[in-house]
Structure formats: structure tokens, C-alpha cells
Task: inverse folding
């Protein structure tokens, strides 16, 4: 019987081991980069879903001939899953004659929750994006369900009228396009305002809402935050 050669019994050479180590190092580096960019993926995932929520709100307002609102949950900072991460649509109830019933709102569909480490930006979401001015209005909510009724401060909102016009941007006869901005970051225990991480200072995304309800996504973060690198949002 033929004896095995010295080569077959020698195992891996030093060069082969170095190549394997190099491949493992490259794979670990790619994996680490993926974890660092997790927030960015959250923002890019949330944006189309948020646009769909706005489309729903406009369609509901026109279809039912009443006001509708997109609500952003800012009610209770202790609610880790909802605070600055939950958004949903409501519309104003009407009577048998089609007249709006004051302070009576109906939930439309299900709420959308942003991906982990992705938050609504109160700092950069404005009534007038171009001028970076005007804070969004707030409202309380009751009579809907225990999951949505306000417990503390309530909700920020964007509004559409029965004609499908985004009234949030109306300023007399003028229209100033409001903005919807989200960002990737972290919110520490006891902190009401999320903060950007060292490797995600420019991890922002969003869109403006035009008079007819159409949205235009920002092409890059500088259209939202300029050249700055904010520490919170």
C-alpha cells in the first residue's frame, strides 16, 4: 500500500493560515459596519411607510369629506415603544347630515411603529421647512381606545381637509411646505430627547408635504440639517 506523502500529513501551511485569518478579518469588519449602519437602514425603511401613512390620511379626508390628521406620538416619554416612534391616522366623525362632530375622532387603520433606534425629529420637523420655522400643533385624544387615548401631553399632528389640502402648511393665502423628519439614534434611560450616535450624526431622512398632499423625499441630510452635525433631534 502506498504511504501518504509528507505533504498530505503536514496540514495547512503558514501562508494558507494567513489567508484564512485575513478572510475572517474582512468578514468581521463587514459585519461590524453593518451594525453601525443599522440606524440608517431603519430610516430608509421607515420613510416609504411614513409616506404611505400620509397618502392614507389624504385619501381618508377626501373619501369621507372630513378632516383627517397624521398623529405622531409624543404623549408619554416613559413609553419606550411609542414615544416619537408611533404614527397613525384619525379622521373627524360626522353626523347623519355629513356635518363634522366637534372633538370626535375615529381611528383609521393600524398604527405604524418606526424600526428600532429610529425616531421622529421634533427639532427639524417644521410647519415651514424652507424657513425652518413653526412648530407642529398638538392635540389630545380621547374616546378612541385605551391604546390611543392621551395620558399626558398628547400628539403632534399634520392635517388634511376634505379637499385633500395639507392645511398644516397654509399661511393665509400662502402655502409653506411643512416637513416630516426622522433620524437614527438612541434614547437613554430618563432622556426625553433622543441623541445621535458618534457614527450617525448625519443619519437623517424625511420629506416635505406639498399643498396637494404629495411628498418629496430629501435627497441627502444637508437638505434637512445643513452642514451641522447635531447631537440631538
Result:
Amino acid at each position: 500500500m502506498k504511504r501518504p506523502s509528507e505533504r498530505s500529513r503536514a496540514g495547512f501551511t503558514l501562508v494558507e493560515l494567513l489567508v484564512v485569518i485575513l478572510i475572517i478579518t474582512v468578514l468581521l469588519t463587514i459585519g461590524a459596519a453593518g451594525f453601525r449602519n443599522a440606524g440608517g437602514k431603519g430610516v430608509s425603511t421607515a420613510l416609504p411607510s411614513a409616506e404611505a401613512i400620509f397618502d392614507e390620511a389624504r385619501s381618508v379626508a377626501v373619501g369621507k369629506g372630513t378632516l383627517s390628521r397624521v398623529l405622531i406620538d409624543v404623549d408619554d416619554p416613559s413609553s419606550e415603544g411609542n414615544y416619537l416612534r408611533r404614527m397613525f391616522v384619525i379622521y373627524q366623525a360626522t353626523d347623519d347630515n355629513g356635518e363634522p362632530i366637534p372633538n370626535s375622532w375615529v381611528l383609521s387603520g393600524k398604527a405604524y411603529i418606526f424600526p428600532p433606534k429610529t425616531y421622529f425629529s421634533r427639532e427639524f420637523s417644521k410647519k415651514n421647512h424652507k424657513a425652518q420655522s413653526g412648530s407642529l400643533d398638538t392635540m389630545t385624544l380621547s374616546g378612541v381606545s385605551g391604546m390611543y387615548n392621551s395620558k399626558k401631553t398628547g400628539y403632534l399632528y399634520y392635517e388634511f381637509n376634505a379637499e385633500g389640502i395639507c392645511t398644516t402648511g397654509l399661511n393665509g393665502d400662502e402655502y409653506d411646505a411643512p416637513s416630516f423628519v426622522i433620524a437614527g439614534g438612541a434614547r437613554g434611560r430618563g432622556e426625553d430627547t433622543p441623541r445621535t450616535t458618534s457614527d450617525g450624526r448625519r443619519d437623517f431622512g424625511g420629506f416635505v408635504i406639498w399643498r396637494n398632499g404629495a411628498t418629496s423625499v430629501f435627497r441627502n441630510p444637508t437638505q434637512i440639517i445643513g452642514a451641522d452635525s447635531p447631537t440631538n433631534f
Q: What stands out?
A: The chain has four helices and eleven strands. The two ends are 76 Å apart (CA to CA). The chain has a mean pLDDT of 85.
